[in-house]
């Protein structure tokens, strides 16, 4: 759908709402567009967290894995609820906004690419990839600099940023796209210096050399 059609669609919709002759919510909710985009979202979320949990069990053992390994925090649930609310409101009032299929498909591509990068990071780092940042050096903890870690220093975070913003582009959610980008970027912008403070303590000049050679993988984070 082009922008011209979309703006025309908004005008038509406002008129239909004023005249009380707009489509019912169930008609819109069960439309092809909504069914496809919402089921893609559900599958993306279930696959992401399910595989995250499974890999944590494989690398750290069931007894060391808690529900936090699913990476579901209160803020995360609120952000996801906000995105679904935005989606449903826009679906009802501006259904044309959800018909930008090239945008939605680009978001789907980001979800797939982000997921692959994140999982490559987890598999490459293996036991070193803990969901909580390590503050004490374990003898067995070695610095990982090969595979995806030779391209960016924080591929797990790069993957998550691409995946999470991708979910919102896939839903054609303009507001949540901006909010997710800012919130996730800000989270990693603070977390990376904290994580690297400990990595420098563990690995010293080896980490300094790694950090000068390889970019962080998060835009505008050195
Ligand atoms: C959630 S993982 C994230 C790893 C990395 N920041 C990423 O995005 O792929 C956090 C743990 O990974 C460890 N870690 C981060 N980078 C590492 C590296 N290059 N080699 C070994 N361990 C690393 C940290 O000590 C921390 O406990």
Automatic annotation (TrEMBL):
Q: Catalyzes what?
A: [protein]-C-terminal S-[(2E,6E)-farnesyl]-L-cysteine + S-adenosyl-L-methionine = [protein]-C-terminal S-[(2E,6E)-farnesyl]-L-cysteine methyl ester + S-adenosyl-L-homocysteine
What superkingdom heads the lineage?
Eukaryota
> Sorted alphabetically, which Gene3D superfamilies does this protein's record hold?
1.20.120.1630
Give me any GO biological process, just one. Answer: methylation
Query: What InterPro entries does the record point to?
Result: ICMT_MeTrfase, PPMT_MeTrfase
A molecular function (GO) term: protein C-terminal S-isoprenylcysteine carboxyl O-methyltransferase activity
Q: Which UniProt keyword terms apply here?
A: Endoplasmic reticulum, Membrane, Methyltransferase, S-adenosyl-L-methionine, Transferase, Transmembrane, Transmembrane helix
TM segment ranges: 42-59, 71-94, 100-117, 160-188
Cofactor: binding comment: Divalent metal cations. Probably Zn(2+).
- Localization (cell): Endoplasmic reticulum membrane; Membrane
Q: What family is this?
A: Belongs to the class VI-like SAM-binding methyltransferase superfamily. Isoprenylcysteine carboxyl methyltransferase family.
**Would you tell me the protein name for this molecule?**
Protein-S-isoprenylcysteine O-methyltransferase
Q: Which organism is it from?
A: Centaurea solstitialis (yellow star-thistle)
